[in-house]
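Milestone 3.1: sequence recovery, worked example.
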């Protein structure tokens, strides 16, 4: 009995696929890299941009033939795209050969669903759920161990689907995180631990104890052992001096900060609901650069947000030029059904968006050469 997992999207999904792998192996399945040989195929999907969703639909659609040849094949679809408004139903109707469709809040039920599916198809998308602390993982990211510290997001950036498909922020209890890290360290298999969350700096705000991300970093790094700690993703509005100081002075914390700016223009930042200005962002970056020499800075940008003018886009270009990141990710704005920005007037034509992303990427290429040389 063999399984195959296809993962789309971010590190959170990569890590959740390690959980899916654990569930499947505990039921006796073994991994195959070849989907034609599999008895169970799981698609762990992403909804952040249209492209990710289209690729997922293409991949799932292509299995129709395989399912005909192998009627006992089990096809499961989970992750952010199924949770998205209307997409779960769409998958159920458009791809009737899919056996299991589940959302982001009930992944841990996959074990039961694999038993149930012998009798009937499973379509189960929960609207919310508690943190599953019973989980185990089949870690498969080399010497790096991912540790999820929180789920969801409260920020509602106007372009972003995440709060709708992952729910409100929920922090794991510090004792559960520390126990997991201790086990990772005890195993002796890993030298890097990467803490994951949509917005790690707001860790702890929803807990009824006086605890925050900096305290968590202190507690994790005080565990004995030879390992380094990294984290992603940070929101500029929640970066504190205390946190920058901790990164700067703690030898166990990697000197890497991924801090998405999204735009260099204040009007667009406001429309995006990012709660900081270009000036504030620059102030944080300059503080980080000053206090953490040789820091590796990376960022995300979106081009072609509704109503973005050529001049406003140029402010993104000159912000990138000014900061000289180690690398950036540049995305074409993709309207997501259900978000505020998708309903805004002034959507930018595709060819302009493509032109802007190409210009941003070629600037990035030029700058990266200089930064890497240094
Ligand atoms: N369109 C384009 N890019 C997006 N991102 C999030 N939502 C969208 C969207 N609708 C980008 C942001 C975020 C990264 C993970 O994906 O830059 O930081
Ligand atoms: Fe999306 Fe903004 Fe939350 Fe990041 S902070 S997940 S961009 S809503």
């Amino acid at each position: 009995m063999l399984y195959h997992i296809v993962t789309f999207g971010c590190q959170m999904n990569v890590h959740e696929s390690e959980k899916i792998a654990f569930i499947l192996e505990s039921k006796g399945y073994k991994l195959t890299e070849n989907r034609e040989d599999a008895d169970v195929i799981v698609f762990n999907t992403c909804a952040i941009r249209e492209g990710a969703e289209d690729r997922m639909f293409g991949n799932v659609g292509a299995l129709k033939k395989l399912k005909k040849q192998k009627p006992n094949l089990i096809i499961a679809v989970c992750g952010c795209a199924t949770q998205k408004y209307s997409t779960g139903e769409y998958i159920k109707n458009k791809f009737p050969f899919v056996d299991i469709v589940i959302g982001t809040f009930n992944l841990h039920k996959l074990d039961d669903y694999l038993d149930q599916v012998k009798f009937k198809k499973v379509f189960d998308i929960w609207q919310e759920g508690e943190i599953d602390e019973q989980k185990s993982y089949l870690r498969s990211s080399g010497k790096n161990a991912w540790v999820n510290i929180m789920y969801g997001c409260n920020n509602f950036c106007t372009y972003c689907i995440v709060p709708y498909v992952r729910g409100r922020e929920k922090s794991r209890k510090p004792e559960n995180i520390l126990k997991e890290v201790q086990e990772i360290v005890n195993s002796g298999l890993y030298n890097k631990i990467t803490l994951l969350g949509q917005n790690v700096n707001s860790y702890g705000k929803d807990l009824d104890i006086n605890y925050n991300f900096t305290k968590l970093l202190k507690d994790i790094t005080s565990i004995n052992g030879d390992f380094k700690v990294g984290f992603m993703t940070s929101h500029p509005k929640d970066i504190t001096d205390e946190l920058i100081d901790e990164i700067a002075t703690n030898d166990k914390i990697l000197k890497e900060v991924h801090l998405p700016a999204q735009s260099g223009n204040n009007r667009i930042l406001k429309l995006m609901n990012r709660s900081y200005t270009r000036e504030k962002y620059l102030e944080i970056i300059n503080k980080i650069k000053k206090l953490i020499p040789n820091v590796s800075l990376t960022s995300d940008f979106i081009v072609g947000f509704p109503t973005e003018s050529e001049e406003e886009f140029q402010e993104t270009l000159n912000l990138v030029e000014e900061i000289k990141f180690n690398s950036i990710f540049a995305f074409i704005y993709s309207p997501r059904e259900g978000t505020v920005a998708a309903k805004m007037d002034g959507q930018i034509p595709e060819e302009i968006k493509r032109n802007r992303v190409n210009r941003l990427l070629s600037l990035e290429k030029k700058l990266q050469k200089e930064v890497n040389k240094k």
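The longest helix spans residues 350-373. Residues 144-373 form a domain with the pyruvate-formate lyase- activating enzyme fold (CATH 3.80.30.20).
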